[in-house]
Structures are given as C-alpha cells and as structure tokens.
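Notebook entry, structure prediction.
Reason for the run: the old model in the group folder had no record of what sequence produced it. Starting over properly, with the input documented here first.
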Amino acid sequence: MSISTKREYKGVLSIKLIAIIASLYGIILNWKGLFSLTYFTNLSNIFMVCVLMWALVKHIKHPRNKATCTSLHHSHNSNVLWYTVKFMATLSIMVTFSLYVFFLAPTNEQGFIAAFTHNYCASLCVHVIAPLFALADFLLFDNASKSNKYTVWYGVIPPFAYIAYVYILSFWFHVTWKHGMPAPYNFLNYAAPSGWFGLEWGAISSTSLGIGVVYFITIFTILFLCLGKLGMIWQNKLYKKRIKRFAADTEDQAHR
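New structure, fully documented this time:
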C-alpha cells in the first residue's frame, strides 16, 4: 500500500468513525423511547449509522480495495446496489441537515443557537456534524459504481416513505406531537393556518412555516432531486479518475 493510499485509508476510517460517533451520541442523548422513531432525524441517522458501520467493516477487511474505493473484485450489480443504498442514506441525512438548519432551528422556540446546543449539543451532532461527515465520506470515497438515470429517484424514497408513515400515524391512529400537532415537524403540519395549499407568511412559528404542506414538499423534492443529480455527476467524474489510478497502480505493480 503506497503512502497516498495509506493516507486515504486513514481518511476513510476517520471520517466514517466521526460520523458514526456523532450520530450515536446525539441519538442516545435525545432518545425518549420508541416514540423517538417517529422523527425523521432519528430514522435517517440510524439508517446512516447502519450503512456506515457496514462500510467500515468492509473497509477494514479489505483495506486495499476500500482505500482506493474501486471494489473492482465485486460484481457490477453489487456495486450499483451498494452505491444506491449509500446514496439513499446520504440524501436522507442531508434532508435532515437542510430542514433543521434552514427551517426548524430558525423557528425553534429556544432560539437558533439553543436549537443546536441544548442537551449537551446532541442536536448539533445529529443535525450538522454527522450529516456533513457522512456527505464528505460519500463524495470523497464512494466511487465504486457509476450511478444510472434511476438512482436519483431512489434517493427520495426514504423521505416520502417517512411522510406516508407519519400521516398514517396521524390519520388512522390519531397520534399527535408537540403542541398537539398532527405531525412531528411544522413543515408537515397540515393543521396550521396554511394547511395543505395555503400561504400564511404571518403565521411562521414553531408550528407553521406559513406555506402549504404540498407546496413545501414539492419545492423541497425538486431541490433535492437537482442536488442529488449534481452529486452523481461529481461521483461519475471521480469514478473515472479512480479507475485510471487503479489501472496505473496495477500496471506499476506488474512491472515490479
């Protein structure tokens, strides 16, 4: 293993560990029983931790392949499947990051700063640190497979599955959350003045974003589909560079 490969190996290991530790720390401190599983923050962090732990095990077992992120000894279908799962986990955790930083923290009753620092910075860990390190891990080191035209659509499955899950709890089981809301988050609160299709900018608070739920979901979905596509373009460029480097390393070793 060359010096550059050793450095990359340590980088992969460090970034994954930081993301996992930050996520677990925040989940544990914020845990309030099974009801915690009704929050997308916890579900997306758990999903991400499971994926990163599996990747970490594979990385440690096969340091040469995982450090260079080529995984050329695996089948193409295996590569595509792993890339898709990792993409879904990464996009989910970035949804958590974006929604909290740009919408939930600014409307938090305790204030923007306190929204991150309360409970020994547990919120900061699950909403900022873990997502950013998971994103870095994905963009920098996960280039084992080219994405295809369907990959970006798989990325929005977890958020939409969560929305369906929450509204099933709300409509059929009459579950309520903070302030009696029929949803865990203000942007999903159809009982707010803006409802499903309204606009009530003067009603922005911890229980309402002042925009109809359908409008918000539509805009946010389009935004993340575009961001996901840009991420895949980046991935494909890195993939080509990694393949060339792997071929060069293999040829160099053959001449030794």
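Summary: Residues 134 and 151 are 18 Å apart (CA to CA).
The old model has been moved to the deprecated folder.
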